[in-house]
From TrEMBL:
Comp. bias (Polar residues): 1-10
First-level EC class: transferase
Molecular function per GO: ubiquitin protein ligase activity
Reaction(s) catalysed (UniProt annotation): S-ubiquitinyl-[E2 ubiquitin-conjugating enzyme]-L-cysteine + [acceptor protein]-L-lysine = [E2 ubiquitin-conjugating enzyme]-L-cysteine + N(6)-ubiquitinyl-[acceptor protein]-L-lysine
The protein's name: HECT-type E3 ubiquitin transferase
Pfam family, one: HECT
SMART domains given in the database record: HECTc (SM00119)
Organism phylogeny: Eukaryota, Sar, Stramenopiles, Ochrophyta, Bacillariophyta
EC number: 2.3.2.26
Amino acid sequence: MFAEELSSNASRKRQQENRARRRQLKNEKQKQDAKATAATAATAAVVATATPTPATISTPVVTSTPTPPPIVADASETSGKSAAVANALQQRQLRQTTQLQLKSSIKIQSLVRAYQSNFKLLQQHTTLLKKRLSDLSKLATLIKKKNPDKPFVPPVATTTAFTQQLLFLTKSIPYQRRNSTTSTTTSTNTKDDNKNSKPTQPYAQRVQLRGLESSSQLFKQVLETCVLPGLTNPDDTANPVVQWLQQGTYRLSRLVHVAMTIATTPHAPIACVTTIGTFLRILVLGKHSNNHTRNANSSLTSQTAHATIVPLCRTWFLDANHSDLYLFPVVRHFLLWQMGSQQQPIPNNSMALREDCFSAKERQQADVLFQLLTTLVTSSGKSTPLQARFVTEILTIPLLTWKLSPKSVAQLVDTSNSNNNNNNNNNSILLVSMMNAFLELYQDPLGDGKIAMILPQVQEGIMTNKCPATNTQCLLANCTTLGRLCPSTQSLTATFFYLVAFLLDVVPLGTFLTRDSAAVEWVTDGKGHHTPIVLSPVILEQCKLLLVESYVRNLFASAIDTNALHTTAVLEAQTDKDKKHETDFVSTAGATATAMAAKEARVDRNRWLASAKWASKIKKGVSNMLTSSTERRASSTTTAPAGAGKLVETSSVSRQLASGNHTNVAKAVAAASNESSTDKRPYSPQLLFCLCRTYAIVLARWGGGGKADVIATQQQQQSTTEHKNEIATSRPDPCTMALLNVLCFGTDLVRTTWALLQSDKELNAELQATMDKTAIQSLTARPCFATYPPRTKLSHDSAVLLYVFVATISHALIITDDVEIHEMGRPLPLHQLRRCIQLLKKVLIRACEGSSSKQRHASSNPFGLSLVAASVKVMRDLYDRSARRPLCVPKLWLVDNLMVKEISNCKTHTDYVDLLHSSPVLRICPFLVSFKRRLKLFERIVTTSRIEMQGVNDANPFNNNPLKPGIPVQIMRGRVLEDGLATLNKLGRNLRQRINVQYLNEAGARESGVDAGGLFKEFWTDLCAIAFNPNYALFRVTEDEQNCLYPNPLSGSAHGAETHIVLFEFLGRILGKALYEGITISPQFSHFFLSFLRGDYNYLHMLPDLGSVDKQLYTNLMFLKTYDGDAEDLCLTFSVAVDEFGGNKQIPLIPNGGNKEVTNSNKQHYIGLVAKYYVVDRVKEQSEAFTRGLWDVIDKSWLRLFNEPELQVLISGATGGALDVEDMRAHSRYIGGYTGIETTIRRFWSVVASLNTKQQADLLRFVTSCERPPPLGFASMNPPFTIQRVGIMRDGDLLPTASTCFNTLKLPTYSSEKVMKQRLIYAIEAGAGFELT
C-alpha cells in the first residue's frame, strides 16, 4: 500500500503527515524491541547460572537464530520508493526475530522448570525407595528371628512396586538426548568408523544412571531384598518374574537392561556386580553355584518358572537376531574398551606394568561377565556355532589372560572343569572343546587359508591403529598363553595345534622376527584399506612363548615314545638292498674319495641308459625303496631299549676319538646310552603329527628357505616375487635357530620322524602320491581336512614329517664329525643315510622337473620352497662329507639318463653355457649326473669356447673359423717361470687366446721345434712343475698321508707383500689355462683349497680341515671340546701364537682377545675361531688372489659342476701317476706300417707295462708333453696316442723320437725287447729338447 500511496497524486502536506506518523511508530517499536531483548538476555543468564544437582542430567542448549544486521539504505539512492521498500523489509525481519526469541525463551524456561521438577521428583522417589527398602529389610530381619528356617519372600505386589520405582529412577528422561555426554554410553548408529571415540552398547541407550554408586546400591538392595527371594521361591504365585511374564516381557527386559548397564560400567561396585551375576545366572541357567554368593544353592526350584524364564532369557543373551542383549559383543566390548586406566585394548604401559595394568576390581568385574558367558555356552549342549563364536569374539581379545582372574582362566584350561560339561568327551578341556567347534564349523575356509576373513577385521568399529595387533596375532597369543597354563601338556590334544598351525600360516611376518627396533606391519581393515601399525611388544612376547625351549621339549616328550614306535629296531633293520649297498661299499674300503672319483670318470654308464631303471622304479612308490616286508616284521616284533634317542654323555668317548683310539667305540656308546635311560613317556602319534606341522610352519616361514625358490633361476624368482607380500624371511631368524637346537638336541625327533617315514605304509603311500601328483614347491603345511569329523586324516602329513626330518638332520650335521657318522651311527646309521640319499634324490628330481612351469612358481608356498631348500642343503652336506670320507659308492648318487638329451641338443658354446645356467640340476644338484657326463660337458664347454677364441686348424676351404695367429712367447729353458710371468701374466683374460711358444736353449739360441700345440703343452707342464713346487715357498704340504698343497701363510715374508699376490694370481691363471687347454698337471691340492677354487667353501668343515693342516693342534682342540673340567684351568685366551721365522707372534682372534679367557661357556666359540684362523684367515689373501686369476680364464660356474675330489681329477687326471696300459693300448693308433698284431708293437706294450710309475709318466710326457692322461682316459685324447713306424737297419741307428703336437711316438723297429727298453728309457730320460730329433 506504501507503493500505491507514493504513486498517487496526494498533496505534499498529507505526505509529510504520514511520514511523521510512521517515524513516531518506528521509534516506539524500537523501544519495545530493546526492552524485549534485555528481558531475553536476563532469562538466559538465569538459566545458565542454574546448576543441576545430579551430575548425570544436563540441559540441552537451544540456540536462537541470530539477529540479522539492519539493512542500511544506500546513501546514493535518491529514490524515495527504494528507501520505503528497504525499511519495510527491515521491519518484517525484526518482527520475525522477535517472535523466534520469544519462543526460544519460553522453551528454555519450560525445560528448566521440567528439569527442576524432574530432579525434585527423582529425589523424592529415591528417598522414598530407600526408606521403603530400609523398612522392608527391618521387617525381614524380624521375621527371620522368629522363623530362622523359613526365608522371607516379599509379596509380588511389593516387589513389583519397588522394581517399577527402581526402573523409573534409571529411566532416561524425555528431553535427554541419546548422544549426550552425560549418559553412560553413546549411540553406535554411525555409518563411518569413528577413530576418536569408543563404541557403545545399544541396550544402554534407554538407561541412565544418576550417580553410579547410589544407583548401584539401590539396584543391589532391590535384587537381594525383593527379586532374588521371590525368584528362587518354589511357589509360582510368589515369583515376581513369573507374574511379570504373564503381562509381557517389558518389565523383566527393562530390569535386565539396567543390570547389564551397571555390570558393564567401569568401576562399578563389585558387590553389586556380583549380585547382578547371581541374578543373571539364575535367569539363564535356572540355578547358580558360584563362590561369589553367600547362597551357593540358589536356583529356580519351580518347573514352571524354569520352563518360562530360562528359554526367554537364553534367547536374549544368545540369539543375535532377537535381542540387543546378545552377550558376545557385550563381553567383548567390556574386555576391549572398559578395562584399564587408559581404557584401550592394549594399554601403552602394559609392557612395563605387565598384569598390574589391570586392577583386581576390574578383573573381578570381568569375571562375572566372562563366567556368565562361558557357563551359557557350555550349558547349551553341543552348540557348535556358539563355541565357534567364543573363539572368534573372545579369544581374539588381546591380553585376555591378564584381564581375567586366575580362576576364570583355569575354567578354560583345567581338566577338572571338563567333567562338568556335557559336551566334553575324553576329559578334554573347555579351551579344546571351543577350538574343536571352531574347526568343525569353519573347516572349508580354514582349509583355504582364509582364517583372517573369519575373524573380525575391524575392532568394534575402530581401526586397528587403536589396537596395535591383528586378530590373528591376538588369537595366537591367547592360545599360546593358555596352552602354557595347562596343568599338563597331555591336555593339549591335536585340535589345539591344528588351530595354532592355521594361525602360524597367516600371522604377520613380524610376529617372530628378532628386531632391535619396533615391528611395523601393514594390516587391512577388510575393506581394501591398509594401515601401518607398530605391533605391540606384549603380544609379540606372548606369541613367542610357543618357542620357549622347555615348553617345546615337554611337548615333544609327550608326543614321542621310541618304545612304542620301535625306533631303534626300525633304524637298525637292513633290507637286502641295504646289504648289497654295504657290500659294494666295503669292496671299495681303503679307496680315497679322489680315487673313487677317478674310477667313476672311467666308467662307461651309457650301456645302462636304455634300461631307465630309476625312471621306472619311481612309479612304484617310495615305499618299495624305504621299507620291505622283512623290515616291517622286524619293526613289529623288536622293542627299542629304554632311552633310545636320548642325548648321552660321551665326553670320554670323544676324548678317545680325539686321541686316535677308535676301538670299542660301539660298546662305549651303548654303555653311555644305558646310563642316560629314562622312564617312559606318554605317547600320542596324532599329537606328534600336529606338533611337527606346527613347528614346520615356523621353520618354513622364519627359517630363511621359504622366500625364494632355490631351483628357479634369478629371473624366475624376480618375476614370481614382484607383487607378493612378504610371507617368509630370506635369512634364518635367531628364533628358528634356537628352535632347531631344541628339536635336534633336546628331543629324539630326527630318528623318530625317519623311523615313521619308513615303517608307516600310509605315510609311504601318501608321500608317493604327493611326489607324483603335486609340485614340491606348491606343498603347504596348512591343515586341510578331507572329512570332518573325525579329524584323523590331514593332507601332506608325510611331507611335513619329511621336512621336519630334513630340517633337523641338516642342523644336527653341523656339529657331527666324520667319526660320529662312521663309527657311532649318528645321527643315523650309515645304511639309513644311504636311504635318505635315495629319497632326497627323488625329491630334488621332482622339484627340478617342475621348475620350468610358471604356474607352479606362481602357486609356490613357503613350506614347499623350504622343503626343497632344506633337501638341497642336506644333500650337499652329505655329498661334501662323502667327498672327504665316502658314505656310499658313487653310483648311489646318480640318476640314470639324467641330462643326456639336454646335453646332446647343445651345439655351440652359448648353448652349453645357457644350459649350465638354466638347468636346475646342474646349478643345484650336479652330483645327480654321472661324473663322466659332467666331465664331457665341461670338455665341450671349454672346447667350444677355445674354438671360438682360437679358431680351427682345418684345411677345409669352407672353414669359416680358421686358426687365428697366436701370441708369440719366447721362453728360455732355464727361466721358465720368470719368462712366463713377465710375458703372460699381463694378458689376463686374453690367456684364452692361442699362445705360440718358442724355446731358447741354454745358449740362448732358438730350438728347431715349431709350436703346433705340443711346445705349449710342454712349456705349461714345466711351468706348473716349478710354480707349484713347495720349495718355491708359495705352497705348503699337508700333514696327512696325501701330501696335498695349500697356500703358504708366510709367502708374503718370502716373496714380498706385493710380489706374492702377483705370483698367486699368475698361478691361478696357469691352472686356468691348463684346464682351458685340456692339459693335466701333477699338483695335488688340499681339500679345503679346492673348495676355495669352487667359490663355496663350507665353513662347517673347518675343524676336519684343520686336521690336515696341523694334526697336533687338531688333537688339542678335540681334547678341549670334550674336556670335563673347568676350561679356565688351561689358561687359554682368545689368541693364537704364530711362529714366523723363529719368532713368536700373538694374534688376537677377537678384539682384545689376549685378555679374554676361555671358559666352558665360550670354548666352542674359541675352537671355531682357532680353526677358522688356521684354515681360512691365514691363507685368505693368497686364496683370493689365486681364484681371481683362475676365474679370469675358467668361469666359476663351470667349476661348480664338481666336488673337491672330482675337481682334483679334472686338474690332475684320472690316475695317480700310473698309466692304465690297457686303456692306453685300446685307444692307440698305428701309422707308417705298424699294426696292432706286429711283433714290434707287442714288444712296445710289454716294455710299457714293465716300466715303473715315474718312467711311465716320463714316457707320456715325452710323447704328449703331459705326464698324466686326460680325466676321461685315453679315449678323449685329441689327437689320439699314435705310434709311427721308423725302419732301421741296425739297433744303434736311431733313438725313439716324438711329435708332441700330434701325440705321436716315432718308434724304430728294434730287434729285441731288451734293446727297445734301453733305447726308450734313454730317450725319455735325456731331458733334451729338439737336439735328438
